[in-house]
Task: inverse folding
């Protein structure tokens, strides 16, 4: 999934941002002979929840940075990330009589068109038919939108480079995800209830063209499970976080 707005919010000098680390895990490919992938050394994910404040307005979101490391720079294109998604983003309205109405009226870019942000079953999370996460032109360089930073440990926009412009001097690339934003007012709330599986594969195992439901196209080397969850409680006037998918999204 690609979402530009949160990037703009986070980088804005007019916004205050509070972040909390939810997950920071690294997979070391020690059992590499089993998958014939010994030039893949590490696969890691960093997930944070954040609140962006503009005056009295607040927006709630989750960021994920996914990176992998290989033996050599020349090995980087041999591996790629595919992400799967389940859940939805929806609006909840508080009616004058105190009852609530839920509407799935939020859209996202998905497989070449804008569709309701509603995935009751697991599907590939991609804006186009190439399931490789954040893929570039398959006829040129599928990994072109993958990134690296002058600081090997940083995901910052400062010092960041796109792989299609220049290859790194060290064997590490990353991609990022900023799923749907949540926000609330007196009588309505935009809720987010999403689950993700972020996996690394051999690029040769990832088809160039797929359908959203083709989730078993190959066996991944490793996957990370994470969530983005903001369900508004009108009584407490606060968002709740849970790893369970909201019943309205199933």
Result:
């Amino acid at each position: 999934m690609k979402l530009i707005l949160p990037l703009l919010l986070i980088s804005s000098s007019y916004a205050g941002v509070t972040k909390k680390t939810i997950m920071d895990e690294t997979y070391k490919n020690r059992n590499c002979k089993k998958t014939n992938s010994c030039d893949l050394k590490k696969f890691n994910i960093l997930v944070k929840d954040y609140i962006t404040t503009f005056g009295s307005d607040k927006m709630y979101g989750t960021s994920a940075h996914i990176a992998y490391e290989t033996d050599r720079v020349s090995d980087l294109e041999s591996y790629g990330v595919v992400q799967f998604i389940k859940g939805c983003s929806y609006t909840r309205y508080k009616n004058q009589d105190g009852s609530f109405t839920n509407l799935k009226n939020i859209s996202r870019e998905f497989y070449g068109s804008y569709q309701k942000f509603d995935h009751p079953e697991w599907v590939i999370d991609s804006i186009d038919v190439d399931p490789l996460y954040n893929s570039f032109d398959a006829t040129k360089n599928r990994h072109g939108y993958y990134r690296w930073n002058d600081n090997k440990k940083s995901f910052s926009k400062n010092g960041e480079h796109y792989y299609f412009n220049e290859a790194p001097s060290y064997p590490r690339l990353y991609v990022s995800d900023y799923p749907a934003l949540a926000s609330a007012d007196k009588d309505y709330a935009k809720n987010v209830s999403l689950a993700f599986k972020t996996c690394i594969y051999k690029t040769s195992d990832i088809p160039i063209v797929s359908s959203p439901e083709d989730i078993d196209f190959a066996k991944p080397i490793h996957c990370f499970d994470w969530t983005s969850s903001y369900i508004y409680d009108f009584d407490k006037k606060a968002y709740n976080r849970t790893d369970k998918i909201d019943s309205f999204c199933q």
